[in-house]
Design goal:
- It comes from Menidia menidia (Atlantic silverside).
- The chain contains six helices and nine strands.
- By secondary structure, the chain is α/β, with parallel strands linked by helices.
- It has a five-stranded mixed β-sheet with strand order 4-3-5-7-6. The chain has a two-stranded antiparallel ribbon with strand order 1-2. Strands 8-9 form a two-stranded antiparallel ribbon.
- Strand 1 and strand 2 form a beta hairpin.
- Helix 4 crosses helix 5.
- The protein binds zinc ion.
C-alpha cells in the first residue's frame, strides 16, 4: 500500500466513524444480525428437539439399536466379528453351536452361568444388568448367578463397545457393556444371548429366503459381517423379531441406505432391542433342553 492510499483509508475510516447516521445504520445491521442469529439458534434447537424425539421413537421400537451397538463399538481395539462378537482366539466359533460351548446344566436342571460385574458400574447400572438377566430366568432354565469359585464365568466390564464371546469359552470370558453406549436392557440381553451361544439372526444359513443383503450399500471393509454362518436353527422359523437380528442400516455406506431388507415384505420390522422374542426364548429352551 502506498502512503497516500493508506492516508486515504484512514481518512475514510475517520469519516465513517464520525458519521452518526452511518453509525446508527451499522448498529441496526448488528441488531438485525443478532436477531437472525437468535432465529437460527431457535431453529437449531427445534431441530435438535425433533432429532431427540426421533431418537426416542427409535428407542421405543428399538429399530436403531444395532446402530447404537455399532456406534459404541467404533474405535474398539478388540477384533470383532459382525460388529460385536469377540473373535475367538482358542476355538472356532462355528463349532460352538454343536454343544462344545454350552454352559453346563446342574443336577436341578438349571443351566448356571456364573458372572462377575466390574465395580466400574454404579449400583443402578448393576441393577440394569441384573434386570436383563432376570429376563432369561423368568422363561428359561438359564440362571446367571454371581460367581463363587467356578472356573468358567463371564466377566462383565465397561470396555470400548458392546461385545461378547460366542458361547462358553472356558475360564474367564469377557463381555463388555460400555457405560456410555450399551446400557439398554435389550442391548444387554443381546450380548448375554451371544454368551449363551446364539449368533445373529441375519447370518442364519437360510437367511437368503427371508432377507435381501444389499451388498452395494455395505461399507466394503465390513462386508465380511454379512457372511452366512453354518448355524443350528433348531428347526425354528426365521425370526425377524429376534433380539439377535440386525437393523436395516447396519454397516451402511450412508444415512438411510439399507443393508438388510426383509423379503418379500420389505416393511417387516427388524433390529428390535426391546427384549428376547418368543422364538429367542424358545431357542434357549431347545438348545439347553430346559
Ligand atoms: Zn451381536
Amino acid at each position: 500500500m502506498t502512503p497516500s492510499a493508506g492516508l486515504l483509508l484512514l481518512l475514510l475510516l475517520g469519516l465513517s466513524r464520525a458519521h452518526p447516521l452511518e453509525e446508527a445504520r451499522q448498529e441496526e445491521e448488528i441488531q438485525d444480525q443478532e436477531i437472525q442469529n437468535e432465529e437460527i439458534q431457535d431453529e437449531e434447537m427445534q431441530n435438535e428437539e425433533i432429532l431427540d424425539e426421533e431418537m426416542q421413537d427409535e428407542d421405543k421400537d428399538g429399530v436403531d439399536m444395532t446402530t447404537r451397538i455399532l456406534t459404541a463399538n467404533n474405535g474398539t481395539e478388540k477384533l470383532l466379528m459382525e460388529g460385536d462378537l469377540l473373535f475367538p482366539t482358542s476355538r472356532n466359533a462355528m463349532t460352538c453351536w454343536y454343544n462344545s460351548c454350552l454352559w453346563r446344566k446342574a443336577s436341578n436342571g438349571q443351566v448356571v452361568v456364573p458372572y462377575v460385574v466390574s465395580s466400574q458400574f454404579p449400583s443402578y447400572e448393576r441393577q440394569m444388568i441384573e434386570g436383563a438377566m432376570r429376563a432369561f430366568a423368568g422363561r428359561t432354565c438359564v440362571r446367571f448367578v454371581p460367581r463363587r469359585n467356578e472356573n468358567d464365568y463371564i466377566s462383565i466390564g465397561s470396555q470400548q463397545g458392546c461385545w461378547s464371546a460366542l458361547g462358553r469359552q472356558g475360564g474367564r470370558q469377557e463381555l463388555s457393556l460400555n457405560r456410555g453406549g450399551c446400557m439398554y436392557g435389550g442391548v444387554i440381553q443381546h450380548e448375554l444371548n451371544h454368551a449363551l451361544g446364539f449368533q445373529h439372526e441375519q447370518t442364519r444359513s437360510d437367511r437368503d429366503s427371508y432377507v435381501q443383503i444389499n451388498w452395494n450399500n455395505i461399507i466394503q471393509s465390513s462386508a465380511y459381517n454379512f457372511q452366512k454362518q453354518n448355524t443350528n436353527n433348531l428347526n425354528t422359523p426365521y425370526d425377524y423379531s429376534s433380539i439377535m437380528h440386525y437393523g436395516r442400516t447396519a454397516f451402511s455406506v450412508g444415512y438411510g441406505r439399507e443393508t438388510i431388507t426383509p423379503i418379500p415384505n420389505r416393511n417387516v420390522a427388524i433390529g428390535q432391542r426391546n427384549g428376547l422374542s418368543r422364538w429367542d426364548i424358545q431357542r434357549i429352551n431347545l438348545l439347553y433342553k430346559c
